[in-house]
């Protein structure tokens, strides 16, 4: 029995030694994990800053593209039909910006629909501001 007790004690001692080794190994691994988590947080913050900068640049580029697309998709007509030019010339209104009061006086003899049509053409041509 003494032999069994001695053998049991040795086994318990060996198990305790293994447990101590395992515990120290786990503590080391846990310490490494914390360092990994901290460095991952720092890298994530850097990445977020980098992505925020890229997002701002993309938004500026998008705004510029929208502005240029608006002018391409909606070009202003720069010419006025010949009949309109002739009618305005008869009333002394030539090339360049047209004074609204002078235009109204020149269009007084036309019907409402015709005045609206002439003013629309002048607006598209950029002659009326």
What does this structure look like?
This protein has 2 domains: 75 residues; 44 residues, no CATH class. The protein is mainly α and 129 residues long.
Core attributes:
129 residues, mainly alpha, 2 domains, 4 helices, 0% strand
Which secondary structure elements does this structure contain, and how are they paired or packed?
Layout: H1 2-73, H2 82-90, H3 100-106, H4 112-125
Count structural domains: 2
Give the N-to-C terminal Cα separation. 114 Å
Stretches with pLDDT under 50, minimum 5 residues: none
Helical content class: over 70%
The fraction of residues in strands falls at under 5%
A few lines on this structure:
The chain has 129 residues and is mainly alpha-helical. It has helices spanning 2-73, 82-90, 100-106, 112-125.
């Amino acid at each position: 029995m003494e032999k069994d007790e001695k053998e049991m004690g040795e086994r318990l001692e060996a198990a305790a030694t293994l447990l101590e080794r395992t515990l120290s190994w786990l503590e080391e691994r846990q310490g490494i994990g914390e360092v990994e988590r901290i460095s991952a947080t720092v890298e994530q913050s850097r990445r977020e800053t980098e992505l925020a900068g890229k997002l701002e640049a993309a938004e500026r580029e998008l705004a510029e593209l929208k502005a240029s697309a608006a002018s391409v998709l909606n070009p202003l007509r720069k010419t006025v039909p010949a009949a309109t030019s002739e009618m305005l010339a008869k009333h002394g209104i030539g090339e360049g910006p047209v004074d609204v009061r002078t235009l109204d006086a020149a269009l007084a003899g036309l019907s409402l629909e015709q005045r609206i049509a002439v003013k629309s053409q002048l607006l598209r041509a950029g002659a009326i501001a």
